[in-house]
Fold:
Amino acid sequence: MSERDTMEYDVVVVGAGPAGLAFAIRLKQVKPELSVCIIEKASAVGAQILSGAVIEPEPLNELLPDWGNNPPPICVPVTRDEFWFLRDATHATKSPLTPPQMHNHGNFIVSLGALCAWLAPQAEALGVEIYPGFAAAETLFDAQGAVAGVRIGDMGVARDGSHKSGYTQGIDIKARTTVLAEGCRGSLSKQLIARYRLDAGSDPQTYGIGIKELWQLPAGRGEAGKVMHTLGWPLNNQTYGGSFAYHLDQDRLAIGFVAGLDYADPLFRPWEAFQQLKHHPLLKSLLDGGSIISAGARALIEGGWQSLPRVEMPGALLIGDAAGLMNVPKIKGTHQALRSGMLAAEHLAAHGSSTGWDAALRGSRVASELRKVRNIRPGFHKGLWLGLANAGWETVTAGLSPWTLRNHADWSSLHKLDAALAAQQPGPNATSPEQPPYLERTLPPRDRLAGVYFAATRHDEDQPIHLKVADTDLCVTRCTVEYANPCTRFCPVGVYEIINDTSGKRLQINAANCVHCKTCDIKDPYENITWTTPEGGSGPNYQNL
Structure:
């Protein structure tokens, strides 16, 4: 192997999401002489960004005061909120009140991917170098053990590890400070949190899976600016989650479903539950006759205050969802990502290193917002009704309860089959005689592979499998017996299959389907799966998600 090429900067940012871009813009605003680069694993900035998303504009006002004169291409002012409880497969009740955290007056419905694509040239105009299509595969360390930059993954490696004709060795990007803005469950962030024991004083992190589709509705059916949220069916009362439907302009609708990954039933199928949800009369009346533009899935980080790790380490810092800053009751993280990126940039400009960033973040309004709502999400561990009652209490008291409810690791929450089958099922399980489909599925997509198509997912199939299963024998022995292979259900795009052929039972990994949601890395009950970055530019290519 030849010596790797090297590029050197004052700061390297991993991830061109809202946190990373806000950081880079603010740093160049306050200290323009610093050299800054952003590396992004997607083929283009915004291509792998997926969120609801309704955003609070205040941080954007601070970052770019004139942004309203040249707004992002999808940016619709919220006109009204609705909150519904779906009692069953056919009935719904509209709440006379919208939860305070979901009041969206003054907010905007956006495509977060389009917002990031809009922010990128503004960062470049300030001198930030942005390199999409380059995946950070490893962390570099100096002789003292501090983070010293990142290594870009090699390109043109065959599945068997040999070098193809187009092989290109990844470069080393060295920097005095590395900023991890990878978003939820970033692969390098996960490794560094473990290496430096950044989570030693916090609860285990907890997550949700979010599945989203962008629809083109029939002409005249959209109500631009309308925001709708639901609770209830097809989830049972023990499973946290709900849905959203956001009306964009031009008769477009962003519709999505979120389920907490602390669910207990190993037979639960989040993707199929979402497809059932769309057939509820409340939603089907919107979608009938429409068509899907784009679709995808992404994990959401939900642990909040008590799961917040230390966000500084020698030579590096965490911002945005890499740190776990989403406000779950608001179902919003973008304003937290933008604000944390700006604060981190100001800290680095003032102090020259990551030292002190953890205290600065914890003393900021970003952390105080998390602390006020810290008990709301874990309050749903006891079920929907107790969770709602607890949420009301925490809202009225502004989070001043003298206690803090605890989080637990999502991988540990699955019941084994004997317990799960005796419990009420949280959603339709098409293969289970105890839980037949509730509604005939007529709306697209009708299977998971169609969902892969709408995500425009592309991987070179002749590359090393980026989903690392530590013990494949475990999959066809204990996991089959104890949990009936939940990876075949929690993955929304059919990456994992159990094949039983003449050679026996085996796990098949359809890595080319992967939309990089990271659910498998989170929910596997044995922590047997590790998600790593594939070749740069691989993965989904979302349109305005």
Summary: Confidence is low (pLDDT under 50) at residues 422-437. Residues 104 and 254 are 16 Å apart (CA to CA).
